Amino acid sequence: MSLNIKPIGDRVVVEAAPAEEKTASGIFIPDTAKEKPQQGTVVAVGDGKKDEPMTVKVGDVVLYSKYGGTEITIEGKEYLMMRESDIYGIL
Amino acid sequence: MSLNIKPIGDRVVVEAAPAEEKTASGIFIPDTAKEKPQQGTVVAVGDGKKDEPMTVKVGDVVLYSKYGGTEITIEGKEYLMMRESDIYGIL
Amino acid sequence: MSLNIKPIGDRVVVEAAPAEEKTASGIFIPDTAKEKPQQGTVVAVGDGKKDEPMTVKVGDVVLYSKYGGTEITIEGKEYLMMRESDIYGIL
Amino acid sequence: MSLNIKPIGDRVVVEAAPAEEKTASGIFIPDTAKEKPQQGTVVAVGDGKKDEPMTVKVGDVVLYSKYGGTEITIEGKEYLMMRESDIYGIL
Amino acid sequence: MSLNIKPIGDRVVVEAAPAEEKTASGIFIPDTAKEKPQQGTVVAVGDGKKDEPMTVKVGDVVLYSKYGGTEITIEGKEYLMMRESDIYGIL
Amino acid sequence: MSLNIKPIGDRVVVEAAPAEEKTASGIFIPDTAKEKPQQGTVVAVGDGKKDEPMTVKVGDVVLYSKYGGTEITIEGKEYLMMRESDIYGIL
Amino acid sequence: MSLNIKPIGDRVVVEAAPAEEKTASGIFIPDTAKEKPQQGTVVAVGDGKKDEPMTVKVGDVVLYSKYGGTEITIEGKEYLMMRESDIYGIL
């Protein structure tokens, strides 16, 4: 589940969950949720900013702002590069 | 009353009270209160920001800015994800 | 004169004085004072921000910016929730 | 020359000098000086901000920005409530 | 792979990879990726800002924001001068 | 060359040099220099901001931004009240 | 190569290189480079900001942002007064 990239600072790479997925913890993201947070899995984590270690770790299932990240393509797959502050919480 | 999500940093998850509710402490939120703070119950709390522990805790009934939060859906129920600074006070 | 709410951080709840009131210290707020500070009584005070204790206390009669607060209704009465920085001075 | 109000933080209450006054130090503020600093006397001073004591004191004759203050009326007289940073210098 | 320029502060000089290149780690940047991060190689690195040493070093293959850098021409070749914060991650 | 005013904080009072003057160090300010820095002599200096002593002193001939100061009139003469950061350099 | 002016704080005076010059290190600035950094030689350096000593020194050949400086005329010659942060790197 880890990825061959080292994010800089407080950046995180997230693999977005497919739409309408229902997770183990039972969070349901309906297809029509346009403004709502997205769900995904953390696949790479930076070392954090000075004196501020990271909270999330690789493997965490997270809710994140759909407006916070930047799409990147690694080995033909789409991921999102975002800052930890774009992540709302860990499920 | 707790929820299966760990908010990041100073974020808080609040379950909004139904409109027109009258609480134990007697605060009445009329149906026409368009610009006024909303009332709800804290259901999840982050660990706070660096050197700034959180003030609110799970179970607190709070007044919050209706413009400060983001709607999230967990197990089919609507909640609000907000920062503690969006909370005005604890009832 | 105290109120059943605990403001978060540097927030303060103020009960506005009726218009045209003349206080013990003789400050007169005429009915036509449209842009001028308002006068009221502090009814609840937060614990302040990190390393910055509050200056005002419950019972203080204060002048405050009429643009700084948010109206809240508690037990059927109107109050103003504001930050201490919205208060100009203690009478 | 002191006034029955305690400004909060770095705020100062100033009694504006009448227009066209000529002070002991000889500063002349002509009637047509529209954009120029105003002159007045400090009548109340706050305790300053955290770790930043105040420089001005009650009785100081000061030049101040005419755009920095807020008019307040105390005992039927007009004063200006401003921050110390709105004061340019002490005459 | 190093370059005869010493960037100031947290600046970095990057040599952009040709479009559609496929790197050793398998990241594929298609020709049509208009909004996506760019890939390149670090050729010069500043000493960092006060108390914040640099993370990237000469020779690192990096993903960077295509909007963050400034084009410079050294010895007839194009490079990008950017801040380390414009770099998303190291491949 | 000193002046009967004590600027607050990092403020400085400057007496502008007449246009087209040529100083001892040979700086020539042509009449048509519309966007260029102005030259003048420091006549009063504040005590600086917290932990930041002042660099300029009374008597220094300085180049300053013509957009940074505020005109004041003392004893019938025009001066400029500015912050030290509006001064580019000492001649 | 030094100049009779002491810049304040982190300011630097740069003598711009003539257009299309080719330096010892081989950087070529073509006549049509409209948005690209400019090259010049540092002729005066301030003492830096509090706790932040300067990196560049008199005599350094530097690349700088053409939008960062202010033109000044000293002894009939044009120079640029800029902050060190407007300098990209030392050649």
TrEMBL record, chains A, B, C, D, E, F, G:
Matches recorded under PROSITE patterns: CHAPERONINS_CPN10 (PS00681)
Chief subcellular location: cytoplasm
Superkingdom to which the source organism belongs: Bacteria
Keywords from the named record: Chaperone, Cytoplasm
GO annotation, cellular component aspect: cytoplasm
Keyword Cytoplasm: yes
Oligomeric form and interacting partners: Heptamer of 7 subunits arranged in a ring. Interacts with the chaperonin GroEL.
Name listed for the protein in its UniProt record: Co-chaperonin GroES
Organism annotation: Mucilaginibacter galii
